[in-house]
Design goal:
By secondary structure, the protein is an alpha+beta fold. The protein has 2 domains: 180 residues, Jelly Rolls; 93 residues, Homeodomain-like (Arc Repressor Mutant, subunit A, Orthogonal Bundle), CATH 1.10.10.60. Helix content is 48%, strand content 23%. The mean pLDDT is 89.
C-alpha cells in the first residue's frame, strides 16, 4: 500500500495523550476540525470512514489506520454508508517531524531533519533516531491486539492506567515503524542496524571498513550502500558522528581533559579530535564545554 510517511526524530519519543471510541451511524460523517494541536490516529474497527485533510481525501476501511496532522484541517468527505466504529488516539511530540510522500524522500531528508531536531530538542548532544509511521495503513493482527489492550485498563487506577497506556502506545508505534521498515527494504534496514550496533559496541577501538567486513561478513561497499539508504551516511561517517556524540556527553558531564576524552571515544590524537569536533560543530571542544557550563 502506497502511503505518505510521517517521519519523527526521537528522543523525545512521540507521547500518548488520550484515547477513546467513536460511533457513526449510517448517514453520519466525521466532524470538521482545524489545527487541533495534536496528532489524531484513527483506526476503523467496523464499517468505513471517509476523511479529508487539506486537499486530500481518503477512505479508511475496517482494520486500517490513518494519522491526521495537528496543523491541518480535517473533515468528513461523505456520510458513512453503514454503521461505523473507530478507535482514536491523540498523541504529540516535542521533536522535529515532517510528512513525506515516500520512505525514499524521508531518508533523503533525514540528515536535515535531525539537524533541525538538535536545534530544538532539549539536549543538543543526545543520540537520536528516526521513527516512521505510515499515514494510511492496513494493520496487522498484532497491532489490533495492542490497540485492544488500551481499553482493557478501564478498571485500573487512573495513575496506573495512564502509565500503561503510554507504554502500549510506544509498543504500537514501534510495531508500525518496524512493519514499514520491513516493507520498504527489510534486508537493508536489518543490516544497517547491525552495522550501527557493531560500531556502538566497538567505537572506542580501531573500527575500519575491513573490521566491519570481518565482523559482519559483507563487502564494505554493500555495508555502505545499506547505511546510506537507512542512515544517510557511510559506516565511517556514522562512526565519526557517534564518537563526537559520546564526546559531547563527556564534555558536559565530566571534568576530564580534552586529550583524555579524545582517547576515551576512540581518537588516537587529541589534535585530530579537536579538528573533527570543530569541523562538525563549528566550535572547539573546550568552547563547547564552556557553553554548556554557561547554560548550567
Amino acid at each position: 500500500m502506497s502511503s505518505p510517511i510521517l517521519h519523527f526524530i526521537s528522543p523525545p519519543i512521540p507521547y500518548f495523550i488520550d484515547c477513546g471510541r467513536a460511533f457513526f451511524g449510517e448517514g453520519e460523517r466525521h466532524i470538521n476540525r482545524n489545527n487541533i494541536g495534536a496528532f489524531d490516529l484513527v483506526v476503523v474497527t467496523k464499517g468505513a470512514l471517509h476523511l479529508g485533510e487539506g486537499a486530500g481525501e481518503w477512505t479508511i476501511e475496517t482494520g486500517e489506520s490513518f494519522v491526521l496532522r495537528p496543523d491541518a484541517s480535517h473533515y468528513g468527505t461523505e456520510p458513512c454508508k453503514t454503521d461505523t466504529e473507530i478507535i482514536w488516539i491523540h498523541f504529540n511530540t516535542f521533536g522535529a517531524w515532517e510528512e513525506c510522500g515516500s520512505m525514499g524522500k524521508c531518508l533523503d531528508n533525514q540528515a536535515a531533519l535531525i539537524a533541525t531536531h538538535k536545534q530544538n530538542a532539549y539536549l543538543n548532544h543526545s543520540e537520536v533516531c528516526s521513527v516512521f509511521i505510515p499515514k494510511h495503513a492496513k494493520l496487522t493482527a498484532k497491532a489490533m491486539d495492542i490497540l485492544g489492550q488500551f481499553f482493557q485498563l478501564e478498571d485500573e487506577a487512573r495513575s496506573l492506567r495512564n502509565w500503561k497506556r503510554q507504554s502500549l502506545f510506544q509498543l504500537f508505534i514501534q510495531h508500525l515503524d518496524r512493519e514499514l521498515a520491513q516493507a520498504s527494504d527489510g534486508t537493508a534496514f536489518q543490516l544497517a542496524e547491525k552495522v550501527e550496533l557493531c560500531i556502538r559496541q566497538n567505537y572506542t577501538g580501531k573500527v575500519t571498513n575491513a573490521f566491519l567486513q570481518k565482523e559482519l561478513n559483507y563487502h564494505p561497499n554493500y555495508l555502505a550502500k545499506c547505511m546510506l539508504k537507512v542512515y544517510g551516511m557511510t559506516p565511517m561517517d556514522y562512526l565519526l558522528q557517534y564518537r563526537l556524540e559520546q564526546a559531547k556527553k563527556l564534555l558536559a558531564h565530566t571534568q576530564w581533559s580534552i586529550t583524555r576524552i579524545a582517547e576515551e571515544v576512540g581518537f588516537q590524537h587529541g589534535s585530530y579530535f579537536t579538528f573533527c569536533f570543530s569541523g562538525k560543530e563549528g566550535i572547539s571542544p573546550l568552547n563547547f564545554r564552556k557553553k554548556i557550563m554557561g547554560h548550567v
